Amino acid sequence: MQSGLLSGRFTEARARALPKDDWRSRNAEYTGEKLARNLRLADALRPIAEAHATSVAAVAVAWTLAWPGVNGAIVGARSPEQVDGWIDAARVVLTQNDLDAVAHALQQTGAGSGPFAPPR
Protein backbone atom coordinates (compact mmCIF):
# COMPACT_ATOMS: atom_id res chain seq x y z
CA MET A 1 0.00 0.00 0.00
CA GLN A 2 3.08 2.17 0.29
CA SER A 3 1.78 3.56 3.57
CA GLY A 4 -1.52 4.64 2.09
CA LEU A 5 -0.42 5.96 -1.30
CA LEU A 6 -1.86 2.99 -3.19
CA SER A 7 -5.05 2.75 -1.15
CA GLY A 8 -6.93 4.78 -3.74
CA ARG A 9 -8.09 7.15 -1.01
CA PHE A 10 -4.94 9.17 -0.47
CA THR A 11 -5.02 12.75 -1.79
CA GLU A 12 -2.76 15.75 -2.02
CA ALA A 13 -4.89 17.48 0.61
CA ARG A 14 -4.45 14.54 2.96
CA ALA A 15 -0.68 14.65 2.43
CA ARG A 16 -0.63 18.37 3.28
CA ALA A 17 -2.69 17.69 6.43
CA LEU A 18 -0.39 14.99 7.81
CA PRO A 19 0.67 15.90 11.34
CA LYS A 20 4.31 16.86 11.90
CA ASP A 21 4.87 13.71 13.97
CA ASP A 22 3.77 11.49 11.04
CA TRP A 23 6.97 10.34 9.27
CA ARG A 24 5.19 10.65 5.92
CA SER A 25 5.05 14.44 6.33
CA ARG A 26 8.84 14.48 5.98
CA ASN A 27 9.18 11.80 3.31
CA ALA A 28 9.76 12.80 -0.31
CA GLU A 29 7.21 10.23 -1.56
CA TYR A 30 4.48 12.35 0.07
CA THR A 31 5.45 15.77 -1.26
CA GLY A 32 5.97 17.55 -4.55
CA GLU A 33 6.48 15.67 -7.79
CA LYS A 34 6.92 12.26 -6.17
CA LEU A 35 3.53 12.60 -4.49
CA ALA A 36 1.99 13.68 -7.80
CA ARG A 37 3.48 10.63 -9.55
CA ASN A 38 2.21 8.28 -6.85
CA LEU A 39 -1.29 9.75 -6.99
CA ARG A 40 -1.32 9.49 -10.81
CA LEU A 41 -0.40 5.82 -10.48
CA ALA A 42 -3.25 5.21 -8.03
CA ASP A 43 -5.61 6.99 -10.43
CA ALA A 44 -4.38 4.84 -13.32
CA LEU A 45 -5.29 1.71 -11.33
CA ARG A 46 -8.94 2.84 -10.97
CA PRO A 47 -10.17 1.51 -14.33
CA ILE A 48 -8.61 -1.88 -13.59
CA ALA A 49 -10.27 -1.88 -10.16
CA GLU A 50 -13.62 -0.98 -11.69
CA ALA A 51 -13.30 -3.77 -14.26
CA HIS A 52 -12.79 -6.27 -11.45
CA ALA A 53 -15.42 -4.68 -9.16
CA THR A 54 -12.81 -4.09 -6.49
CA SER A 55 -10.65 -1.36 -5.00
CA VAL A 56 -7.43 0.28 -6.15
CA ALA A 57 -5.80 -1.21 -3.05
CA ALA A 58 -6.88 -4.72 -4.05
CA VAL A 59 -5.42 -4.21 -7.54
CA ALA A 60 -2.10 -3.12 -6.03
CA VAL A 61 -1.98 -6.25 -3.87
CA ALA A 62 -3.13 -8.48 -6.75
CA TRP A 63 -0.31 -7.04 -8.90
CA THR A 64 2.17 -8.08 -6.22
CA LEU A 65 0.64 -11.56 -6.06
CA ALA A 66 0.87 -11.90 -9.86
CA TRP A 67 4.65 -12.19 -9.74
CA PRO A 68 6.09 -15.71 -10.08
CA GLY A 69 7.32 -17.05 -6.77
CA VAL A 70 5.27 -14.61 -4.71
CA ASN A 71 3.00 -16.51 -2.37
CA GLY A 72 1.85 -13.65 -0.19
CA ALA A 73 1.93 -9.91 0.24
CA ILE A 74 2.70 -8.17 3.51
CA VAL A 75 0.04 -5.51 3.83
CA GLY A 76 -0.32 -3.50 7.02
CA ALA A 77 -3.58 -2.17 8.39
CA ARG A 78 -4.43 -0.15 11.44
CA SER A 79 -8.16 -0.85 11.35
CA PRO A 80 -10.62 -3.45 10.06
CA GLU A 81 -11.85 -0.89 7.53
CA GLN A 82 -8.41 -0.77 5.96
CA VAL A 83 -8.41 -4.56 5.60
CA ASP A 84 -11.79 -4.34 3.89
CA GLY A 85 -10.13 -2.19 1.22
CA TRP A 86 -7.83 -4.93 -0.04
CA ILE A 87 -9.00 -8.27 1.36
CA ASP A 88 -10.52 -9.41 -1.93
CA ALA A 89 -7.14 -9.08 -3.68
CA ALA A 90 -6.81 -12.85 -3.22
CA ARG A 91 -9.73 -13.40 -5.59
CA VAL A 92 -8.62 -10.84 -8.20
CA VAL A 93 -6.86 -12.44 -11.14
CA LEU A 94 -5.26 -9.77 -13.27
CA THR A 95 -5.25 -10.46 -16.99
CA GLN A 96 -2.24 -9.86 -19.19
CA ASN A 97 -3.98 -6.68 -20.38
CA ASP A 98 -4.31 -5.57 -16.74
CA LEU A 99 -0.63 -6.28 -16.09
CA ASP A 100 0.29 -4.38 -19.26
CA ALA A 101 -1.86 -1.44 -18.11
CA VAL A 102 -0.13 -1.36 -14.72
CA ALA A 103 3.29 -1.53 -16.41
CA HIS A 104 2.29 1.31 -18.74
CA ALA A 105 1.03 3.37 -15.78
CA LEU A 106 4.30 2.82 -13.92
CA GLN A 107 6.30 3.90 -16.96
CA GLN A 108 4.09 6.91 -17.72
CA THR A 109 3.87 8.23 -14.16
CA GLY A 110 7.45 7.54 -13.14
CA ALA A 111 6.16 6.24 -9.80
CA GLY A 112 8.00 3.51 -7.98
CA SER A 113 11.18 1.76 -8.98
CA GLY A 114 12.19 -1.65 -10.17
CA PRO A 115 10.62 -3.85 -12.80
CA PHE A 116 7.26 -2.82 -14.25
CA ALA A 117 5.66 -6.21 -14.84
CA PRO A 118 6.06 -9.87 -14.01
CA PRO A 119 8.00 -11.80 -16.65
CA ARG A 120 5.83 -13.49 -19.24
Structure, described:
By secondary structure, the chain is an all-alpha fold. It has one domain. 45% of the residues lie in helices and 0% in strands. It contains 5 helices and no strands. The mean pLDDT is 90.
Backbone shape: globular
Helix percent reads: 40-55%
Q: How many H/I helical runs?
A: 5
Rg, please? 14 Å
The main sheet comes to: none
Question: Span from first to last CA?
Answer: 24 Å
Unreliable sequence segments: none
Q: Please report the total strand number as a whole number.
A: 0
β-strand percent reads under 5%
In summary, what is this structure?
The protein is an all-alpha fold and 120 residues long.
Task: Summarize the SSE layout with pairings.
Layout: H1 12-16, H2 32-51, H3 56-65, H4 80-84, H5 96-109
Helix pairs in contact: 2-3, 2-5
Keywords, please?
single chain; 120 residues; mainly alpha; 45% helix; 0% strand
